[in-house]
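Notebook B, p. 112. Complex prediction, attempt 2.
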Amino acid sequence: MDSTYIFLQNYWWFLVSLLGAILVFLLFVQGGNSLLFRLGRTDEERTLLVNSTGRKWEFTFTTLVTFGGAFFASFPLFYSTSFGGAYWLWMIILFSFVLQAVSYEFQSKLGNLLGKRTYQYFLVVNGVVGPVLLGAAVATFFNGSNFIVDKVNMTDRMMPVISSWANGWHGLDAFGDPWNLILGLAVFFLARLLGNLYFINNIRDNELIPRCRRQLISDAVPFLVFFLAFVIRTLLKDGFAVVAETGEIVMEPYKYFHNLTAMPVLLIVFLVGVVGVLYGLGMSIFKTSYTKGIWFSGIGTVLTVLALLLSVGYNDTAYYPSVADIQSSLTLANSCSSKFTLKTMAYVSILVPFVLAYIVYAWRAIDNKPITSKELKEDEHAY
Amino acid sequence: MLGSIDTSMIDWSRAQFALTAMYHWLFVPLTLGLAVIMGLMETLYVISGNEFWKRTVKFWMKLFGINFAVGVATGLILEFQFGTNWSNYSWFVGDIFGAPLAIEGILAFFMEATFVAVMFFGWNKVSKKFHLAATWLTGLGATISAWWILVANSWMQYPVGMEFNPDTVRNEMVDFMSVAFSPVAVMKFFHTVLSSWMLGAAFVIGVSAWYLIRKREKEFAVGSMKVAAWVGLFATLVTAGSGDKAAYQVAQVQPMKLAAMEALYDGGTGEPLTVVGDIKIPSMLSFLATRDVDGYVPGINNLLLGGYTLEDGSTALPVIEKMERGKKAVNALADFRQAKQEGDEAGMQASEEVIKANMPYFGYGYIQDPNTLVPNVWLLFWSFRVMVGLGMYFLAFFVVVLLVAWKHKLSKLTWLHWIALWSIPLAYIASQAGWIVAEVGRQPWAIQDLLPLNAAVSRLETGAVQTTFFIFLIMFTVLLIAEIGIMIKAIKKGPETTD
């Protein structure tokens, strides 16, 4: 395989990982929603919370869609195998996001059929289900899934199916491995922490914000327990390695630990990310006037998740391993698009900084001052 | 051989995709149509400084917001269903099909998501001109999104710019420009987007007419109707022109779809166009399909049996022959894989040559019965007529509205108000009928001639797909009822009285 093709595969894995990392950061919308009834004790307070995340939900949603599209374009065998196989896992995630998408606009409107409370519960459901299941789905990148890939099946004219799931659970079997649930819970509590930090930055309310700060402590403890447990266990476990010469997949002791030591830049990014998360969190807990925690913890989240996702794809690692048939595991090389497509898409990706620039510009224009109940009462389009 | 794909599972997967697509298409055209009307109204506000236009655009923006959310939600499901329900498809053509979806996300969705927030929440936070730009950019984002998803859809109808790679067992893109700017995609874009403007215009005129019936908001209603009618008339003319060209393309690249649209079983030269029943326009079908009044148009039976002369002078193959050649291609692929495993270079080369020679018929290798290649004729025939008939109706409708506006009688003619109000559902019917023609007409192909549905589908249990189908059905129906309820309340409330 020529070096340009290998570079393009790695470049696209970087972009997909970056999108995944940004998506985890943007799950602050879900985390914030999961706290809707815990933090918001009055209707007015809940309105503030809904309107705060309501101005950002589209970014999370769009990042999810773009993450899917980019994965499809760059690693179509993953798209085919995971979505078509882990059917129920993805479908439940999608159902919850559909309910979330309409709930903002519908919840406070007259004639909404189901009543305000129901739509707010939908936001809570998405706030819990989205992060837990997305976290569990990412954990399968380290722990493996039950699928079989055989391209020769395309020549079977009666049953031409390339990827198939090895059991009838279609993705729900991910919860058979408690470590998948543990990362799911870590992502859930992280999303709640980020949601709280975002509220602290975005809302001015003398009763609500102290409550957000107190909630940080309640969520920080389980987050640290689940996250550290997952990371330590992952670094100590056997991983799915690719033999570079033959493409064969083998189990390698301490594979993910080796990946970080073999790629020290990733180790540094990971550690800087973790420190960033903890700094934003600590400052927001201990300094009552501090409102910038979301930026430190948010950027820290992006760096941490980016390092984890890169470590599962780079350095001859199978990023979507199969425990049903280890040789069916997906690697960057065996699941990617053609060189031509990756190259064409790489040209398109040059526009990404431009897209990021206008997002930042528009975000700042809208968020130039924190929202208040008074402002919402005067805003015709408030949710 | 381990077994065969459960046909009921394929049908449920089709039903689920059709359900999602049809619900999605209830919301998207209004987004596209209202976006341009809102953009024009806000431009009038910024140019004239007249607060009337600000109040007007804010009202339509409110309805836009209610509609937008459900469109976004149903769109998410559509994208992921390619993976969840059509996983074989996702690998077999993902190298080509994935690219437009990714570009759509990067270029269009972020533009929409970013500027829609400025549009809704930025009235008192950004300058007038920045807000106007945000409104237009929201519409532009939606339109760019339409471009790329229609590029993807057109590629399924007219696959170009790719080559089959037996080594990876998939089609791979070799010419991006021919995929991104295929003539079928260009026509489909203009036809689909401009017909959405028609729907948006019909919606604005219909809702405005309701105020006139109720003798409320006269100035607001008349102003909105005038802007919408101009948009509607322009859109109808472009839709008609692009529709004619799109139908001509269908005749060239999907002749079975055209034959089914016309319920033409036995074709010939100088074919008349059936309006309905026995009302026919002599030689018109030949002219529309070949640009020649004496041109030959094959019917369903001709297409199945072959034997007629094609434009390039060659003789059309019978379907049986295509199926045989498709089997040869599929079997040669198996031989190629076997030869590769054994390190037999000569065997690989020989198999590759057989694959190449028969590749245009590859998908026919998975067809078991030639009759399954005929789409639902009744549904296509009537959907096409409903679409075209309503298109002609709307041309007359927009002309009448503009003439009445010119005579300054827009607020007085109650009969026109009622017609306008009842034209709203007609616009939706026309729009849905158009997609039925496009999508039912290409059955049983996921990708024309290359991959039939039975070779595209995921391997799932029928019960799983049935369950998700009914969950979607209930969820989308409830959301649709809720949206209509909210819309009605918002319309009854009317535009804000103070800024």
